[in-house]
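>> received
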Amino acid sequence: MELLLDGVRQAVRLLVAGDREIWSILWLSLQVSGSATLVSLVIGVPAGTALALARFPGRGLVVSAVNAGMGLPPVVVGLVVTILLWRSGPFGALEILYTPEAIVLAQTVIAAPIVTGITLAAVQQVPREFRVQLLALGASRVQMVWVVLREARLPMLAAVMAGFGGVISEVGASMMVGGNIKGQTRTLTTAMVLETGKGNFVKDLAPRFEQAAGTRVTLVFGSTGNFAHQLRQGAPADVFFAADESFVTALVAEGALLAETRTLYAQGRIVLATVKAFGPKLTELRGLLDPKVRRVAIANPAHAPYGRAAEEALRKSGVWEAVRGKLVYGENIRHTLQFLQTGAVDAGIVARSVASVPEIDWVPIDPSLHAPLNQAAAVVRRSPRPELGLAFIQFVNGPEGRPIMKRYGFMLPGEF
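>> returned
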């Protein structure tokens, strides 16, 4: 409860203080979701009215499809729209992926069946005898439809509210087609997800670089695998910092990154973390076998390098199969840390760079238990200012950046 209250207090403070980024995100959210709702009304009201008043072969199938569409998972919608808008997809030539227009499109797909279904139900509630009487009194079919819609206006208001509510609160589709790009496609829900993926060392480095170079740095955080996929599809960025050098190597080979700018900047470490409220600090991975340890958090090995390292360490320690049923997967390493900080799990494996928080105790994990977490960066080929991107990479590896990296527990080039 205290966590929720703290969140509410911080939200109120940000709004009252007039935080520019928060208000920008709020305005974009209203624009995008408002546009999607408007388009959904243009599509859904006529479609729902037609389905309510008309009788034709296959109508039952169409109504069933609308009802099924009202429950479409946003993530599924996001995946389908993303595939359609990929560069290699049928509508790739439009080049609208990772733009507000793409989010409007995805949200329209979500909201249109909702508006159609509620309109259908609202119009059907108007007695058939009323419609017949209007026609008998000489009203044209268009006039009859207009009067019926006026009679159903209150239930149809629910269609507007449901459509807007369905899209303003969804996150899956917006994340997938918008990319959560700061200042361009970050809406309220995707900004909330971003907060679970924030790193620390680069936030310390960015202001120093801004002062030294006289430029502004915009930071976007998330899992390495997800960002690599977005860059393949043309997401706007200048520099890519990866927690696994293999992603940089692959993107260089594909031509998405500039080969001559590829630079190793650190080697990561993982630690075994124990929630202080759980009890005695775990000192080895076999401690996770203790029946008192009910939930263990790691980052998703499918796309998070630190999660893959955690899986390798558990396998080499011989405890993977026994611990597997206890695992809770974070979207990225910061999300995994959040599980620990909130007490949702008893223990976990996280990056050393994020482990210095008051809610947990930690011990280092032997690096020989997993493949080296060599981390690399490179400039994005599509960057309009590649020289600034390279300058930032050099700054991280330079005399100002290295002490900060060291403070967060990284091994630096020349040390591994």
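>> The CA atoms of residues 47 and 116 lie 6 Å apart.
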